Amino acid sequence: MRRFPLLTTTLLCSALALAQARAQVASHSERIPGMGNDSAQDASSASKFTAPPPGNPQAPGVNAANLPDISEIDPATIPAMVPQQSANPGHDDWAAYGHDDNQDRFSPLTQLTPENVGGLKRAFVYHTGSKPGPGQANKWAAETTPIKVGNALYMCSATNDIMRIDAATGEEKWRFKAGVQYHSIPYTAACKGVVFYTSSTVPEGQHCHDRIVESTLDMRLIAVDAQDGKACESFGTGGQVNLMQGMGESVPGFVSMTSPPPIVNGVVVINQEVLDGQRRWAPSGVIRGYDAESGKFAWAWDVNNPDDHHQPEPGKFYSRGTPNSWATMTGDNELGLVYVPTGNSAADYYSALRSDKENAVSSSIVAIDVKTGSPRWVFQTVHKDVWDYDLGSQPTKLDYKAADGTVIPALLVPTKRGQTFVLDRRTGKPVPDYPVEEKPAPSPGVVPNDPRSPTQPWSVAFPRLGFPPLKESDMWGMSPIDQLFCRIKYRRAAYVGEFTPPHVDRPWIEYPGYNGGSDWGSMAYDPASGIVIANWNNTPMYDQLVTRKQADKLGLMSIDDPNYNPSGGGAEGNGAMSDTPYGIVVTPFWDQYTHMMCNKPPYGMIEAIDIHTHKVLWQKPLGTARANGPWGLPTFLPLNIGTPNNGGPIVTAGGLVFVAAATDNLIRAIDVKTGKVVWSDVLPGGGQATPMTYMVDGKQYLAIMAGGHHFMMTPVSDELVVYALPGKTG
């Protein structure tokens, strides 16, 4: 029997995990046409299937609960918001998705330390009950971070049931059944979290004074009472609002929501994921605001109709194909803004049909005034993005003390590029200590009538979450033959660095890939020490545009096509990109026979950065080979080689970082000073969520949703696992 070098054998399944490593990733095919693709000159935008006009009736199930239309409210009449739990959480609480309104994923708790964390034991396990049923393909990818207020944990299942759990025992106190149907799941069943809201109009002690608010996979906004879990009847229609109103023709699964909606100055702000890779004229990426008290519509920001903030009149619809936002947004009550991370216009890899208004706001942070729906500023992280470098991370608010002693209200913006931007959140301009330079980029590109931007923005003072550009000498494999194969792939592809333009006549290497840098896990920030904790990916992709004729041969069809086949692509992998001249084929940059990455490891990292000195304090590979191995076989080896990872870190005043994220199904405690792993445990499923920590009766707990992630090929479970030190502590 052939024997493989130890390091090589530990890495192969990591490459398998990479293939599906994002919230919106499709199955990958090895059918890149290469040099035999039809010429660009033969490209035609004609498809076998023509989408219905937006005025056609929406398909059954799009308005999941058959809710009536919601009326409008003048935003000026929305009542002033009372102080919220998330604005100043109790010392023992975790009151928002990212702990508090700053979304810094920092806890002031100090009971758990590097010295005693090794004694952590499971305190309880709670089952959400949400897993694939008989005959259902596995689309599950729970990314939930619970919130904790008082003695209660509040969370959502992967399919949007809302639960209240006793924070000390795990006993379920109530459950609101959302009723999301399987056909409404897009490419992933995920609910990142819920929002705790205290009413400004309902008196304390009355029903729905305190509420739990969530947005759903089937495009509903739901509000329930925090004490009994029953619907808030005065909100929307029986506690629910139909968010497909004004969106026009669609089918179930085309549009969905996975992130908790921020409530800013009494306005619930809604974004939505529009399934990538489908068609140029997909449903709108419109951002909307609703009154948190009544559920009535307040405003819309529709990119191509920026001056019309009302709901569309009958027979009209929000402009289609505009950049959508699927990441978790961050609110700013003091400035009256919501910070919206945007993606690309529909049809990610071809930009010729985008409007100037779309090009100005894609792959950006857009600061929207929550009383008007108008942007106050825009900061763009990629110009004319055709690499799917959309923003997947939630921004973090911080007060930055500049070199001259002034304190700047700032915003920390991670990206898939591994570039981290530090902005003045009042203006959107980079803080002086963290300048941004426009550097030359390959231009004009090679796709007819689709030139690239001549420059791209670089954050030159913040350490990059990434490695240098690829070289042929970086190619490697489990034998000299495999390495040679990867060198051939490297040579036959176009590659001139990070912004290598798309090609039709041959593949191009996308590096960092669409799962590079930071994705939905974002970063953690300790405001006392100024330390940023970031885990990130090093995962190149191998892409090629294909002509419409070739896309049809490959069976690439949009989700609204009657012949749509999910296994044929349609999210972040292969996609039809109907209504354009091209489809897209995307695979990992790997040896398709061994499923081993062509670039050398590590593929996942974690590091600590001092935001004041701009220095990396430590940097380590994140992820072992214990659950990874050749051709999907686990090696059970503890070698820390760095695997793809998604799901974020948290940091505590006790000097610990807690993170799961990696494909080895471990949760870790890391000493924030040294980067040393001081405790770990094997989870029952993949930990592709961000953990949280809280205290009850003097005991500190650590919680992680170990739901797994089908795209990252980690085991699926329905278990929230909660840890504490044994015995009574106080």
TrEMBL record:
Pfam family, one: PQQ
Biased segments, Polar residues type: 38-48
GO cellular component, one term: membrane
Top-rank taxon: Bacteria
Listed cofactors: pyrroloquinoline quinone
Domain Pyrrolo-quinoline quinone repeat: 94-701
GO MF terms, alphabetically ordered: quinone binding; quinoprotein glucose dehydrogenase activity
Signal peptide (UniProt feature, chain positions): 1-19
Region of interest (Disordered), residue spans: 30-68, 426-453
Keyword annotations of the record: Oxidoreductase, Signal
PANTHER family referenced in this protein's UniProt entry, alphabetically: QUINOPROTEIN ALCOHOL DEHYDROGENASE (CYTOCHROME C), QUINOPROTEIN GLUCOSE DEHYDROGENASE
Family listed: Belongs to the bacterial PQQ dehydrogenase family.
Record protein name field: Pyrroloquinoline quinone-dependent dehydrogenase
Taxonomic classification: Bacteria, Pseudomonadati, Pseudomonadota, Alphaproteobacteria, Acetobacterales
